[in-house]
Amino acid sequence: MRDSGILAAIRRFALIGKAAFSARYRLHSPQGVLVLLAAIFDPYIYALTVYFVLTTVFQMSGAERFHILLIGFISFRWGISSLVASANLPGVMARMREHSSTPLCAAVIAVVTPPACVFVLSLASAFVFSAMLGSPLQSFAAIAWLPFVVAIQGVWTVALILALAYIRGRQMLTGDGPVVAAASLMWILSPVMYTFRDIPEGASKLLTSYNPVSHLLAAYQNTYWYGQAISLEVLPWVTVLGLGLIGLLGRYVFGGPRRNLADASRHRAGVRLVYLRAGAAEPDAAAVRLTPWRARFRDLRGRDLVRMIVANWGLSRLERDHRIEEIARDSTVERLFDDYLAIYPDQALDQLAFAVAMRSPAPAITLDGILDTLAPGFRVAAWEAMVRAAEQGRSIDIVCRQPVPPPDLAAGVFEIIGPGGVVARGKIGPELALAYDRPVVLVADEIPVSAAGAQEISAFPAILVTGASSQIGQCVVHRLCQARRPVVALGRGRPRYSMNAHLRFIEGDLEKTGIAFPESLSSVVHIAGIWLLPNHLDALHARGVRRIVCFSSTSIFVKQGSSNIGERDLVARMKAAEAEVAARCKVLGIVWTVLRPTLVYGLGIDRNVSRAARFIRRFGVYPLASAATGMRQPVHADDLAAAALAALAAPAAAGRSYELGGGEVLNYREMIGRIFDALERRRRFLAIPGLEILAAVVGIVLRRPEVTGEMVRRMRQDLVCDNGPAARDLSYRPRNFLAGGGADLGLDGIDSRTPR
After folding, report:
1. Rg of the Cα atoms in the chain
2. What is the C-alpha separation between 743 and 601, in angstroms, rounded?
3. What integer best gives the mean pLDDT of the chain?
């Protein structure tokens, strides 16, 4: 990883550019070659289209006009393609910073090379095309000026990429729309679709003299077609300005101290784990600090990015290919390695980051936060890999901000660091577990006012559960506390379960803004109305949330044609909220998943199964419509809680929605019959003709808006879903209806279990 002179740096940059070019156009496959050919020759299509319009509509003809169009489109395509590709620059630079002493140069090379290579190939084809048509010899007389012109555009392309990356980094630009609009405006104002002779005399200065793009296009036209020397009136000064902008941005915005990534001989071999409690200062890092891959990479697969990173390692071609395959195997996420990184959550990206770190040739590395979100199953393999690396003489520091339990085979030392410094040291093993469990006690005024009294809480990022007093919310909280995960429960009223060291409660109404969310959150399970979530996404993102699982309902399908206006309005709100959550999370970089359950039961506070059970227990009979044969798929709240927590950890669930039903499908009459059985009552049904009208009247008289004729009509409607996608991605295996008997009805009130 040592840069041994300029030639080594040039070789390294060439390998990065080659990897980026191959990744962009998938040159390992015939389809990729076709895509590359299309990219090379698509300026011809643009030029022919515009030329056809000019010759047929505006009666402007001549071979000269076509060639002027062609060279203009080739030039503009390079610029626009580079600006669009610059969306990947911050993420690629962050990864290059871990493996290169010149990360900005490496990242710029990776971003610029693919469109630059296509530009060169398109330009070469244009010269060949011109020669084949027997163009005048003087069209090639000034070709010696061409490298200078290309270099000028290259300078300004890099300058604009850095400026655009800075603007994106300040959240002033979130999409490519303004970039394309600005480029199109410059295209219209510059002589691309027309020649300089077509410009009216009064507009000549505006469109040419004061437009640097016009000077660049004039230089291309002179070198390519007219065989004339280029004008040096403006271009040299523009080039100096571009170089100054590159130097300014590179040094003061994207720059940083040069780091020696190879000299780590002073580091001792072994594994050191550093657990940072809230407020703790960052420890000194080893030569190479590797952080989680939080940036979203557009149009980059795991293999693409890894190939560009490995190009920095100074290996032979065979060694590079072998190391890439080792990383693919070690990451255990084959789909991520061969799929686009943008669709995967942080947890999956961290597995790939860990695999890259362990195969890095650096003798000393720091894994900063990477192990915090690794899947428990992968952590065992990760510890095994670190132990083997330490035995081979590597120095590995693990920095974590939540407890990372090591397996029995782990060896090394640990430090627990608090706001005041190191509070515990020792060897990894049982002593570490005791140090993790040592609580941080906060006084009452440090806890939200609604959670009066001092509560022992764990000082690392927690999972926020909204709608915590609902039956799904109670089950989610219970499971998290059983797993010893810190959890913050948010609800309108205090829960009946008692508090403990892993749980704290915040009283709040999501209908209002300004809720005092905790400062450090890792993820959210949103069970309250999904329409309440969008207004709080910015605040949650500011607290560190990068993963959200939210609940909607299958009602958006089954009630969209309801005759009840209230139900239709509810469906519209849920649909709009789902779309808004997806759009806003994409902007913020939050990975989202939507779960849509069917009929929920379990703790006795639902409005369907529990209400029917109470009616049966009171009257011993249940009224049915004449043909209550609609299929149902009731699902237990605890099964939904398990699915929500699985979705938090499942890479495949990123950006997806799942319908969740119970473990069996049964018709409405049989579902009610099962309730009779669970209550140990004889099944007694009362068929009432005209029950729809009667229900509507009762709802109006008793002012019960939930009792409607539509509710009765749905007894004949199938309300089921396909659990297949959830079973595949979330290992979703729900129980059969009332498999737990009467306990699943929860008729004794809200579950009063104490999460432990």
Report:
1. 32
2. 11
3. 78
Rounded Cα gap, residues 274 and 289, in angstroms:
14
Q: What are phi and psi of 548, to 5 degrees?
A: -135, 130
- CA-CA distance, 410 to 419, in Å (whole number)? 27
CA-based nearest residue to 438, from 452, 453, 457, 419? 457
Rounded distance between C-alpha atoms, residue 195 and residue 72, angstroms: 10
3-state secondary structure 321-385: HHHHHHHHHHHCCHHHHCCEHHHCCHHHHHHHHHHHHHHCCCCEEEEECHHHHCCHHHHHHHHHH
Q: Phi/psi at 740 (nearest 5 deg)?
A: -90, 10
- Name the helix (H) or strand (E) containing 274: strand 270-276
Report the residue count for the chain: 756
Q: What is the secondary structure of 381-449 as a DSSP string?
A: HHHHHHHHHHHTT-EEEEEESS-----TT---EEEEEETTEEEEEEESSHHHHHHHH-PEEPPGGGS-T
Closest residue by Cα to residue 518 from 432, 612, 455, 606: 455
CA atoms within 13 A on the CB side of 176: 13
Cβ neighbours of residue 594 closer than 8 Å, sequence gap 6 or more: 530, 549, 550, 551, 552, 578, 581, 582, 656, 657, 658
Structure token digits, residue 236:
């040299």
Residue 462 forms beta bridges with which residues? 521
- The structure tokens listed for 490 are 């948010």
Q: Which of 575, 532, 576 is nearest to 555 (CA)?
A: 575
Which domains occur in the chain, in start order?
A: 9-252 (no CATH), 270-437 (3.40.50.300), 444-745 (3.40.50.720)
Q: Quote the strand ranges of 120-181, DSSP E.
A: none
pLDDT in tens, 242-260: 888 888 888 777 765 555 5
What span, in angstroms and rounded, lies between the C-alpha atoms of 221 and 230?
Answer: 9
Task: Give the CA count within 13 Å in the CB-facing half-sphere of 630.
Answer: 18
Model pLDDT for residues 138-187, shown as the tens digit of each residue: 456 667 888 888 998 889 888 888 888 888 766 666 566 677 677 777 76
612 sits in which H/E element: helix 609-619
Question: Sign of dihedral through CA atoms 558, 562, 564, 566?
Answer: positive
Q: Report DSSP state, residue 729.
A: H
Three-state DSSP class for residue 96: helix
Encoded amino acid at 755, one letter: P
**Tokens encoding 624:** 């049915």
The 3-state secondary structure of 499-560 reads CECCEEEEECCCCCCCCCCCCCEEEEEECCCHHHCHHHHHHHHHCCCCEEEEECCCHHHHCC
How many CB atoms within 10 Å of residue 417? 20
Rounded Cα distance, 748 and 137, in Å: 96
Express each pLDDT in 291-302 by its tens digit: 777 665 667 778
Q: With helix as H, strand as E and coil as C, how does 251-299 read?
A: HHCCCCCCCCCCCCCCCCCEEEEEEECCCCCCCCCCCEEECCCCCCCCC
Q: What is the spatial distance between Cα 92 and Cα 108, in angstroms, rounded to a whole number?
A: 9
Reference 498, options 478, 519, 484, 479; nearest CA is 478
How far apart are the C-alpha atoms of 487 and 501, rounded to whole Å? 10
Q: What's the rounded Cα separation, in Å, for the pair 624 and 689?
A: 9
Structure tokens at 43: 């300026």
In a 10 Å sphere around its CB, with 0-12 CB exposed, 13-18 middle and 19+ buried, how is residue 479 labelled?
middle
Parallel, antiparallel, or unpaired for β 521-526 and 364-368? unpaired
CA dist 264 to 260, 269, 305, 386, 512, Å?
9, 10, 25, 17, 53
Q: In sequence order, which residues have a C-beta less than 8 Å from that of residue 114 and are 6 or more positions away?
A: 20, 21, 23, 24, 25, 81, 85
Residue 488 scores a pLDDT above 60: yes
| Cβ proximity of 715 and 612 under 8 Å | no
Are 546 and 523 a contacting pair, CB within 8 Å? yes
**Amino acid present at 357:** A
Q: Which amino acid is at 567?
A: E
Q: Containing H/E element for 614?
A: helix 609-619
For residue 648, the 8-state DSSP code is: H
